Amino acid sequence: MISDWSSQLKRGVLELCILQLLREEPSYGYEIVTTLDALGPLAAGENTVYPLLRRLKSDGVLETFLRESPNGPSRQYYRLTSDGRKRLIALSKEWQAMANAVEECLHKGDSK
Amino acid sequence: MTMNHPLVNRYVSDFNNALPQLAPAERAEVVSEIRQHIDDAMAAGRPIDEVLQALGSVEALARAYQLELLVTPRTSAAPVQPRSDRWLKIMGLLALGSLPTFIIVIVLGTIGLSFTVTGVALVAAGIADSAGALPVWVRSDIAPWLAVVSGVALTILGLLSSWGTIAYLRFVGRLVRRVVPSRASATV
Known about the structure:
By secondary structure, chain A is of the alpha+beta class.
């Protein structure tokens, strides 16, 4: 099924996108989920994104801190650790290489 | 604004009860984050049924956390050697390497230093002797040419030994770094 295939594909890419979203400034769960939702095919659903955020934290790629929110109790924010920055660079390179190869592969099919 | 809707309270408390495997601190953060998500979504004007439906059943959400946190292998951003392992390796290096290092540094190092100094002194004395300019407090029993030749030979031996000592110490340094990588180089 196509949805199975794309969810497999998304699993790995989602981590790269979350790291990239947090590259410039920290963010919190709801904001991350809605940003991904707005990106269409990358929409992952709460029950994928939240557990993934926790795993990235326990892997030492992300860290959390509390920040006052305008409406209510303080929110839990995520930001990249220095290991997270290294991982983002490594994953971006990996993705670029993969995307180029897939692109080339598709064009090979075209010319025949 | 904390929504004290009974449906929300029930969902959050059921979710908390569905996560017994997580460490208490982790579990508290996870539960408060989900509560926060519900608050944020409702503050954005989304109806409560829709918000809870998007989160999925309590059991499915808890299972997703367990899968991610307890089953999926670590991405291991920074593979750091376990402490005990590091210490074992350091002890092993000390046990195997300390005697040869002791002997080589003492013997080669001493030969290197003393031969070089003596050799240079002999050459100087030989030259001075042949020029008849030997200071009165130095008495030479050997021919000046013999002093120069043996002085040169001693200097060469001394320099070779010094070089050997330095090369050996460098080799040991590399060995130590390879067997016991520092944290900084291990993260790459």
